[in-house]
Amino acid sequence: MPDPSYVHAAFSSIAARYVTANHLLSMGADILWRERAIEKIAEWKPQRLLDIATGTGDLALAVQRAFPDTEVMGTDFCRPMLDVAVKRGLRNVLEADAMHLPLPDASFDVATVAFGLRNMADYEQALREFKRILTPGGHLLVLDFSMPSGLMARPYRMYLHHVLPRIAGFITGNSAAYDYLGESIEAFPRDAAFLALLERSGFSMPTQLPLLSGIASIYTAQA
């Protein structure tokens, strides 16, 4: 499991250039993935949405723009990332550890986490905490990297472990943070294993939507 101290230090060091790096390294695909997430969230008509591990606020800002009547809060344990989110226009932020959210039970009807659960120290404990803050019948959306299978698997691993860290190191000045990225993606449960993890964590009706041949996936479940 990831070391929280290392994760905090790594993301603090790249906060200022994190958004640019993400868009360049994914060739803009991350923007399309968030648009698919917004389409799914629209089905739930959220009144109060918590974006966990919001980082620089990409998904929370997209939700804020798409649903102006929804109360959106972004939370993260890394203050430098939150500072960037605020500068970009995210109105409501909370500095907090996702494993122990200082929020009442059943206080949001939708929770989202994009590219963040993979960095948490205990996936199941984190998911149980997300369920705690959701209203009964509320919805969870997890957007994160997977690993493609078939012909895509080998070239993607080459890019992930050898090409991406060099480019990211040039952009952000911290290639080690992106060495960690590849390791965390390989270790993260995916496909059927992640759906089973959602059920073990108390969620029902888990679903998966693979994106770009399985490079990323949107998982949803109901509290």
Care to describe what's here?
The protein has 223 residues and is α/β, with parallel strands linked by helices. The protein has one domain (4-148, 189-222): Vaccinia Virus protein VP39 (Rossmann fold, 3-Layer(aba) Sandwich). 48% of the residues lie in helices and 22% in strands. The protein is built from nine helices and seven strands. The protein has a seven-stranded mixed beta sheet, with helices on both faces. Strand 1, helix 4 (58-66) and strand 2 (71-76) form a beta-alpha-beta unit. The relative contact order is 0.16. The model has no long low-confidence stretch (mean pLDDT 85).
Binned, the helix content reads: 40-55%
Mean pLDDT comes to: 85
Catalogue the unreliable spans.
none
- N-to-C span: 25 Å
Order of helices and strands: HHHEHEHEEHEHHHEE
Structural class: alpha/beta
- Main sheet? 7 strands, mixed
Strand element count: 7
Strand content: 15-25%
Summed up:
By secondary structure, the protein is α/β, with parallel strands linked by helices.
Which descriptors would you attach to this protein?
Rossmann fold, 22% strand, alpha/beta, 223 residues
How are the secondary structure elements laid out?
Elements: H1 4-14, H2 18-25, H3 29-44, E1 48-52, H4 58-66, E2 71-76, H5 79-87, E3 93-95, E4 108-114, H6 123-133, E5 134-145, H7 153-172, H8 175-187, H9 192-200, E6 204-211, E7 216-222
Parallel strand pairs: 1-2, 1-4, 2-3, 4-5
Antiparallel strand pairs: 5-7, 6-7
Helix pairs in contact: 2-7, 3-4, 7-8
